[in-house]
Amino acid sequence: MKIKEIAETRPEDLIKRLAELELELMKLNAQKSTGTALKSPGQIKKIKKTVARIKTVLKLKEDEIRA
Fold first, then answer.
1. pTM
2. Could you give phi then psi for residue 44, rounded to 5 degrees?
3. Which of 31, 48, 62, 66 could be disulfide-bonded to 36 (CB atoms 3.0-4.6 Å)?
4. Can you list the domains of the chain with their CATH numbers?
């Protein structure tokens, strides 16, 4: 997801998507650690970046509400 798409999404949906991505990341990391070949090795990096983007947007939206 791009930052623009994330910024336009409701916080409730972002939290749900964040949970899904973190679960997927956990599964991929488990596969990697056990030595199983990943379908797409770049997927871990992509998910980590998306998680960081979502957390950043959520924090910004939270700060806007407080201000």
1. 0.89
2. -60, -45
3. 31
4. 3-66 (1.10.287.310)
